Every structure is written in C-alpha cells, then in structure tokens.
Amino acid sequence: MYALLAIGFTMVYGILELINFAHFNVFMIGSFLGLWALEALGLSGQSQVLTGLDLVGALAFAFAVAMLGSGVLGVAIERIALRPLRGIPGTTGMITTIGVSYILFNIILLGAGAESKNYPNPMPPVRWDISGAVVDLREVLIWAITLALMAGLQLFVSRTRLGKAMRATAQDSEAARMMGVDVDRVIVAAFFLGSALAGAAALIFGLYYNYTSFLIGYSAGLRAFTAAVLGGIGSVPGAMVGGVIIGLIETLGGQLIAVRWTDVIIFSILVLVLVFAPTGLFGRASPTKS
Amino acid sequence: MAPGKRVLPSLGDATTARLRTLGVSLLLATAVLFPPLINNDGNVDAAANALSFAALALGLNIVVGFAGLLDLGYAAFFAIGAYTYGALASWQLHPAWSDFWAPFAFLDLVARVRGVGGDVVHFQVSFWLMMPLAAAIAAFFGILFGAPTLRLKGDYLAIVTLGFGEIVPIVARNSPSLTNGAQGLNGVIPPQIFGYSFGVSATPYYYVGLTLVVFLMFASQRFKFSRVGRAWMAIREDEIAAAAMGVNRVKFKLLAFAIGASFAGATGTLYVAKLQTATPEMFMFPVSVMLLVMIVFGGMGNVWGVVVGALILQILQSWFLQDLSGWINALGRLVDVEWLQHVQLASSIELIFGLILVFMMLYRRQGLIPASRRVAALTTEEQTALPTRGGFDNLQGLGALDDSRTGPLLEIKNLTVRFGGLVALHSVSLSMPAHSVLAVIGPNGSGKSTLFNAVTGLVAANEGSIRFAGEEIAGRSPHVVLERGIARTFQNLRLFPNLTVLENVLIGMHARLHAGAVKALLRLPRTQREEHEARERAMEILAVFGNRLIPRVDHVVSSLSYANRRRCEIARALASRPKLLLLDEPTAGMNPAETLELADQIKSLNRRGLSIVLIEHKLDVVVNLAERVIVLDHGEKIAEGTPAEVRQNEEVIRAYLGRSAAFA
To answer: Mean pLDDT across the stretch B521-544?
Structure first.
C-alpha cells in the first residue's frame, strides 16, 4: 500500500522535480470515494459479505471509482494550481501543493465530519492455515491487487509510447519536448496515474484497516514519502521496494519498541536516508545540489 | 554624476524618511494605547496572541524569506522555547532537595519546598532570564536540526524540517517526566516584574509581546540591510553564485536557522507564560503551516509585510470570523437558504489558509506588501545618454599583489576531472605568471568551464594539483578560493536576479567585509563606516562602466539588458578585490562595439596589475588581449603559445574549426 502511494510521489518528482504535498490528501479523498462507492452498492459494516462474482464486481466497481476519481482530482490539481506555476523556480510549487492539500483536507473535514468512518468489508472471512501461518482471503486479495497494479504500471512505463515519453521527460524535459513529446500530456498522465494509484492504495487501506478519516492522508503520506526516498526518489521499482520496507518497519517497530515511537522511527529513517544516502536504494538523481 | 551623491540610495530622501518616522511613531503610539482604549481583556488577549504569532512569523521570515530555506517544522523551535521555560518554571520537575541546589536557591532560581511531597526543589527561574536562555537553547537546536540538512535541495530540506517538526511534539508527548505528556504542563509561573505578578490579565503580556515584536522587527531590518542579510539573500537567489562570491554557505545557513529558531524560542517563553500551560498539540504541523501562510500572505522577506500578514490572519481568526459567520447566517435566514444558515467560518479557518496559499502563489507571489522597492524610472536623458566609457585606470582598491614573491601566480599540474565515466579534463597542466592574461579556447564541451569550476572549487578535482600564489587550493571550498583572491564570472550569468545592481556588487565584497550578526544588530559606528565605505567602493567600481550601470544601481538585475548584466557580473567579481579574475565568455551576446568597449576595459584592468584568465570564442578579442593561449579539446590541452603561434597550429585548426575549415 505504501508502495502504491510512494509511486505517485516518485512519478511526479521524477518528471517535475516537485514534492507534491497534495498527494497526501488525494489519497485520503480516494479512501472516501471508495467508501462511498461501496456504500452506494448497499454495503456497510463488517457483516455483509459477498462471494463469487458479486464480490469481484463490487471490488472492481469500488476500485474503478476510487482510482478514476483520484486520478481526475490529481489532473485537476495539476491543471488549476500547478500548471500556471511551472517554470518558476524555488519553493513556489511546493508551497502551492501544501495549500491544495490543506483545501482538500478541510473540504472532507467540513463535508464529512471529523469522526472516523467505518469501512465496509465485503470479503468473506476465509482463512487458510498453511503450515502454521494463517493467511486470510483479505490479505491474499490485497497483495494480489497490489502486485497486479504494480506490474501493470511497470508494463505501461516500459512498453507503451506514453510510458516511453514519460521516461524521456523525466530524463530531460527540454530534450523530450524538442523530440516532439507533448510534455503537458506526459505531466497530466503522471498526475493521473500517480493519483489513481493513490486512490487504489486508499481503498486498500480502508479494506485493510476497516476505517477511514480525514486524518489518514498525513501519516500515510509521510510514510509513503519516506518509502519513495528510501527507494530512491524518481525510481518506480525503488518506490515499490521502499514501500514494502517501510511497511515492515512499521509493523516490526511497533512490536519491538512501542507504537507511540513508530512515527519517530520512520521520520528518523527519512532524515538519515536523506542525509547519508540521498540517492536511496535505486535512485539516480541525487537530492543534493548539483 | 558624482558617485558620492547616491551612496545610500536605498534609504530614500529626507522627506520620505521623515514621513516614515512619523508613520512608525503613530503606529507605535496606537499600539501602546490599544489596551486602555479598547478596555476589554478578551480583545487584548487576542491581540497579545496575535503579537506572539507575529514574532514567530518574523523568525520564520529569517529562514524562509531571507535565506530561502523552506522550513516546515518551525513550530518545533517554538515548542522547545516553550518547554524550556515551562519545565524550569513550574512544578513539573521536582528533584529531591540536596545541597547541590543551595547556590541556585541563593540566586533565586529554585526554591526549597517542604510539603506533602517531601523535601523537594521547585524551579522558579525568572521569566526575564529564561527568555534569552530559551532563545539560546532554541538556537542551539536550530543548528542541530539545520546541520544535517545543509546539503539538501530546497524541497528535501522542507521534508526533513517537517520530520523534525513532527518528532519534537511526539517526543514531548512521550516524555511525560519532562513535559507531562499529552495532559500538558501546568502551574507555569507567570512572570513578575518588581514584585508585580502578571497573573492572568492579558495586558502585561500584550506589552511584553509588543516589545518583543518591535525588537524583532528592528533586528530583522538591521540584518536585512547588512552583510549578513545580503549573504542570506545571495544564498536564496543562487547558492552556487553565493559560494563563488565568498559566502560561506554552511555558516550563513546555520546562522539563519539559529537566529530564526531563537526568535521562536523567545516567543515560546512568552506564549507559555501567558497560557501557563503547554501541551504538545500547540506545536504541531498546522502551526508551522499557519506561520508559513502568514509570511506568504504578508510578503516573504518583507519585515513589515510579515507582521501585517500575521496580525491580519490572527485577528481575522479571533474576531472577524465569528461576526462574519453571524452575518452569513443572518443572510441565509433572510433569503431562506438552508446551508448559509449553518456556515461556521471559524472552523474552516484552515480551508481559508489553504485558499490563501494557493491564491497568493497563483496571483500575487510577492505578497500583500512586496519586498521589492519602487525605483524611479530613468529620465529620458538618462535613457538616451550616450554611453560613456569608464576605464579602470583610476580605480583604487583593487587587491594589490605581493610582488616580492616570485614564481607563477597560478600553476595547475596534471588536473583530471571525471563525471562518472566522462573525463571532462584529462591531465591538464598550465602555469601563468602574475599580471598576465591567459586565454583558454577550444570547441564547446572541451572542458573550459570545467577548468574554471575546478579552480574555483565548484567541482572536485579527481587528480592533480592547483597552486595559487604558491598555495595548494585544490579541494578548497568555493568561498575559501575567493578569499584567497580568485574571482570569476559565469558563462550563463549567475547574478542574484531579484537583488539590485548595488546589492549584487556588495555581495561581491562579502569576503572583504567583517560585520557578523552581532555587529549587524548593534550597527556600531565602525560597522556603519565599513558599510559606507563598501557602498562607496561599489559605486567606484560601477563607475568603471561609465554611465551604463550607475543610473541603474537601484534596479533589480533581472531588469537589465544582457550586456549590462555581463558588466554587472564583472563588477561583482571585481568587488571581491581579486588577484586573479576568471572571465567565462565575457563578451558573449555583445555586439561588436560593446565587445570592443569591454575588451578595452579588461585590458585596463590588466594594466592595473590584475591577472586574468579568459575563456573566449571571439578570436579577435583573444588576439587583442591575451599574451598566451591554451587550447583544450576533449578535456586535453592540445596546444599552448602566443596567439600567433596557436593560430598556426594544425591541430588547433582541426579541433577548433573543423577539418575542412580554412583559417581566415
């Protein structure tokens, strides 16, 4: 999940060299979109369970809504708030994304209320016992969906024309533009894909933790950002690996030390990676001044 | 025009100065009379809070507005200041009494309390002592948090500061022994003065806050118009150029962090004393963002703008939003629209903050009160005046070389620079005597600019030595190289675009001036004299270019013509009193007449004893100026000699002009 969210940061950063704080709350809104989609199907609470095609259909619908909605939101943010500022150096773009993030955050806070919402979980509580390790259907599904999305993204970036254009733009947008790449379109595509994956991650978050609230964007976003940095900002496979590592650290750190220190651990990783190994595990571009 | 006349141009003429003094006095008088006039403790309380936030915004402005370091965890320093006072002036810590505490008790810092809890120490350090102490502690943490982030680009810096801003409240919440955790400190002692306790009335805090804000504004202004402020702004505008002009980036960034943090530390003391409690929630991310909104709203880098922005937003929050919500609700009842009747603007303050940030960024980036100053347009005469040629022959104050030393001024041996697999310079050696002009030519990508970058410390040499005046300078930081006496210009111009011509030249003098933060704050006669002399010298250097730059000293550099920017960059380099000047394509983009003019000026510089290395594509300029020429191709030196010799060299012709080109 963090991996999916981290990809969004990495894609936008790879192309625009911009840290998109709005991404945090695109994720949060994605989880609400997924929630509303499931509720629209008449699902609520933990008791209603679907099986077979009904389950697949419901999940597909929820993912479609969350991903499309988030993707469109990401594109809208780019068009309205960021495109006019492109090319202006310094911190302008980042400050704007903080502003956008705040707006999204408060729209949900004011519109949907401050209390956390119960997430429907339509998946049947099927469990398998594989030589002592208990795996339940929900986890298997979540992993399968995550891997499928990542594989799809990897295929898209490496095989399609637009994917190639994206990689070219990330390397050198000026040169890409001269070679006939429509850079605007590439940027829009990056925002759409990154945001759509954030939407998927958000729905997974909701299905896994069974709740959502206006607050989830911030902490999940920072963890995902740490994952992106750890993996090497700008690198899509790096973001995936970083996301898995952060997920593990969060779980283990919570068990070994104390949950209340988890945030401190994760931030410390962020700071340490940035200071001592700024290119991360797979990064090309260094975040230090050239 | 006599240069002396415009020596202190940015301070304006006498009438505006008097008007400004009058305006400031009126404002101050209003502020002082505010509590008795308003006579409402709630409103005074709101005003006192607003002043606290104005003080914080001023501190953040030093870091973000002046030095351009986006700090998203600024509230951490506020927290540190607050908890420092909170812990040392409350019942939170109460170690058992021992004789160790006796001297502190004598100084009235602690008291011995025998009571239900046994024989314990009660910390009661005076507020007035704690304010500077908390500022110092916060400054220490500013350096601590700043140090690891220095190498990072702006956006990463923001993230790391965000991380620290998050960690500090979490640590506070998870360390109940020191901070009482999430419940918050209580029983913080209110300040006392001459035996009068401030208690819970807002008015005394208001006055302390007002004094603090006035002092911090004063300090900010002093910093801004000093060597320190210029160094910060140079870093903000172009870090690499700042380093090449002698600004020690590490030192000045840390200084910005420390000073910014100290403002927050002092304010934290006041804030906690006023509330008499402190909880971790008071210092979370939203506070940092709110402060950012304030300075963005008011105008980054503008001291008055920042204070006005902070006050407006605070007062908006505490007074107007309630009323405004009431009006909107009334309107809703009037027109019978359901949702208008329930609008609560106060709870949507963060939404408003977000909107302010986005709108300011999209439509008014310079803020409510822009930092840039108005400049009188040039008169028609000034615009149409015939260019006069200056000349460096009368110029005083260029660095004099120690002539007793013999041997080459610059000696490079086997210099190799690699970028990954690419060898940009391969075992290049050269030697130039003092007072000479050396030209470096070669096709694009042959390593000329890399040579300059290696000499000035902007790229690291992989092998070889660079000796300047007998001293090894390979591996030195750019600012050290400049201090030793090598100044440079850049091929693509690296001026500080939003600063004026005069400010650019003054930054060039950075390494030759001395005023640090304390001196800038005190502005003693000696510092004033230094500043005055620096400005005179800057005008003198600018006068070299005749009437090209002098009428434009107060214009921001980005408004200059291309040729004038080149001139300005040379003036900036000269301001550092170099012994060796590296000019990277100084005549690029100039027309033939301008090229001739500049070549003459460079020649007169050399006559004054300055040694010059020149990268140049225009061969007539090279022939005219240089005594010796070296030719680079693919990172290797392929020829060296007098211009005439190099002209005849077959290999040069092939490399430089192409195989089939005839040498005209």
So the answer is: 86
- Is there a contact between A270 and B292 if contact means CB atoms under 8 Å apart? no
DSSP 3-state percent helix, strand, coil across chain B (nearest 5): 60, 10, 30
Confidence category of residue B256, pLDDT binned at 50, 70, 90:
very high
Instruction: Supply the DSSP string of chain A, one letter for each residue.
Output: -HHHHHHHHHHHHHHH----THHHHHHHHHHHHHHHHHHHTT--TTT----HHHHHHHHHHHHHHHHHHHHHHHHHHIIIIIGGGTT--TTHHHHHHHHHHHHHHHHHHHHH-SSPEEPP--S---EEEETTEEEEHHHHHHHHHHHHHHHHHHHHHHHSHHHHHHHHHHH-HHHHHHTT--HHHHHHHHHHHHHHHHHHHHHHHHHHHSEE-TTHHHHHHHHHHHHHHHH-TT-HHHHHHHHHHHHHHHHHHHHHT-GGGHHHHHHHHHHHHHHH-TTTTT-SS-SB--
Who among B162, B174, B289 is closest to A102 (CB)? Answer: B289
pLDDT digits (tens, 9 = 90+) for A202-223: 888 888 888 888 888 877 888 8
CATH tag for B43-89+125-363 (out of 3.40.50, 1.10.3470, 2.60.120, 1.20.140): 1.10.3470
Nearest to A94 among B158, B170, B239 (CB): B158
Q: If we measure between CA atoms, which residue out of B147, B142, B140, B137 comes closest to residue B83? A: B137
Which positions ≥6 away from A223 have C-beta within 8 Å?
A2, A246, A250, A266
Burial B209-223 (b: 16+ CB within 10 A, else e): bbebbbebbebbebb
Lowest mean pLDDT among A182-191, B38-47, B79-88: B38-47
Q: What is d(CA A46, CA A61) in angstroms, rounded to the nearest whole number?
A: 18
Nearest to B87 by CA among B137, B52, B45, B51: B137
Please state the ipTM of this predicted complex. 0.81
| pLDDT score, position B394 | 56
Type and span of the H or E element at B639: strand B636-641
B421 vs B542, residue with greater confidence: B542
- What was the pLDDT predicted at B381? 64
CB-based contacts of B190, cutoff 8 Å, min separation 6 = B127, B197, B198, B199, B200, B273, B276
Residue-wise pLDDT for B385-403, tens only, equals 666 665 555 555 555 555 5
Domain boundaries, chain A: 2-214
The alpha carbon of residue B164 is apart from the nearest alpha carbon of chain A, in Å, by 8
Cβ B173–A84 below 8 Å, yes or no? no
CB-based contacts of B592, cutoff 8 Å, min separation 6:
none
Query: Hey, which residues 162-201 in chain B have their CB within 8 Å of chain A?
Result: 162-164, 166-167, 170-171, 173-174
Picking from B464, B419, B354, B410, the residue whose alpha carbon sits closest to that of residue B578 is: B410
Q: Which of A109, A229, A264 sits opposite B171 (nearest CB)?
A: A264
CB distance A289–B285 less than 8 Å?
no
Residues of chain A neighbouring B153 (CB-CB closer than 8 A): 287-289
Distance CA B598, CA B587 (A): 7
Q: Three-state DSSP class for B630?
A: strand
Q: Is A106 on the interface with B (CB under 8 A)?
A: yes
Residue B367 pLDDT greater than 80, yes or no: no
Residues of chain B contacting residue A104, judged by C-beta atoms under 8 Å apart: 354
Chain B positions touching A112 (Cβ under 8 A) are none
